[in-house]
Amino acid sequence: MGALTQHEPLARHTSYGIGGPAEWYVAVDTVADLRRWLAWGRARDLPITLLGHGSNVLVADAGIRGLIIENRVNGIQTSTSGQLRAASGTPLSDLAYWSVSRGLAGLEWAVGIPGTLGGAVVGNAGAFGGYLGDVVQWVTVLEPDGVMRDRPAAECGFGYRTSAFKRGDVAGLILEVELALQPGDPGELWTRVEDYNARRDATQPREPSAGSVFKRTASHPAGWLIEQAGLKGECYGDACISPRHANFIINRGHATAADVRSLIELAQRRVREQFGEDLELEIELLGDW
Ligand SMILES: Cc1cc2nc3c(=O)[nH]c(=O)nc-3n(C[C@H](O)[C@H](O)[C@H](O)COP(=O)(O)OP(=O)(O)OC[C@H]3O[C@@H](n4cnc5c(N)ncnc54)[C@H](O)[C@@H]3O)c2cc1C
Fold first, then answer.
1. Which overall architecture, per CATH, does domain 222-286 show?
2. CA 235 – CA 262 distance, rounded (Å)
3. Segment 190-235, tens digit of pLDDT
4. What's the CA gap between 171 and 167, in Å, rounded?
5. 5-71 in CATH: which number?
6. Ligand 1 and 136: CB distance under 6 A
C-alpha cells in the first residue's frame, strides 16, 4: 500500500501549485490499493476525494478535510482494432501520443492536456474541436455500493466541459475507460500533433495554471470578454489574469487560493456589468472555502 500522510500540502499535487493541507493523503498505483484505502476512509466516516493530476481544480488555502486519494493507476491495453482500454490514472497526453504512434486517430487534440484520463472524463476535456466524450465507449465505475459497473457513453451525460460525474448524477470513481479510435494516416496524425502543440505554445501562458478558468458563454469565448473588460494583466498578490490569454489565471510564484478566487469574482463582476453575461467556472473549487 502507498504511504499515508497527514497534513500533506496539496499545493504539491495541483498544477496551480496552490492548496492547503489534506487531512489525510495517499497516492495509489493499483485498483486493489485504491479499494483498500477507500475501505479505510469509509470505516472512519471520512469524506473521500479522488484527485487525478489536480489540473482542473483550485484547492482552498484551508485545505480539504477527509481522505484525498491521488490516482496513479496507469496502463493501456488494446482490444480489437482501434478499441483501447486504459486505467483512469493514465496521463491523457500519454494516451494521445501512444495512439498517434500506433496510427490511431481521435485523440490528437489531447497531446497538450496535463490531466489524467479519469479527470478528462469528468470534465469531458477537449480542444481544437475534439471532445473526449466523442471517443468514449464505456466507463468502468466503482459505485458507492462497492460494485463496479460498466456504463456506456450514453449514460455518461457528456456536454460542454461536463458529464454526469461532474454534475453528480452518477456517483463513483472512474476506474477504466474504453475508447474507440479509427485507423489514421500516421504522417497526418503527427502533423496535427505538431500544429496543436505550436498553437498552444503561441497562445498559452507558461506559468502554473489550471487551464481555462471559465467556460465560454453562449455568444463569446470567456477570454475575449475578460480582455474586453480591461482585465488582462490584473493581479491580486501573485495571482494574475494572464497577459497572454485572459481566460488563464496564473500563479507567478506565491499566489494563494484566495487571490485566485478574488480574480475569479472580479472577472465575473466586470463581465456581468459590461456585457450582461454570466461567466460559469470550468475549474472546480475544492475544499474548505
Ligand atoms: C496548461 C493547461 C492546459 C489545459 N488545457 C486544457 C484543454 O485544452 N482542454 C481541457 O478540457 N482542459 C484543459 N486543461 C484542464 C485539465 O488539464 C483537464 O480538465 C484535465 O482533464 C483534468 O484532469 P485531472 O486528472 O487533472 O483532474 P483533477 O483536476 O485531478 O480532477 C478534476 C475533477 O475530477 C474528479 N476526478 C478525477 N479523477 C477522477 C476519477 N478517476 N473518477 C472520478 N472523479 C475523478 C476530481 O475529484 C475533480 O472533481 C488544462 C490545464 C492546464 C494546467
1. Alpha-Beta Complex (3.90)
2. 9
3. 999 999 999 999 999 999 999 999 999 999 999 999 999 999 999 9
4. 9
5. 3.30.43.10
6. no
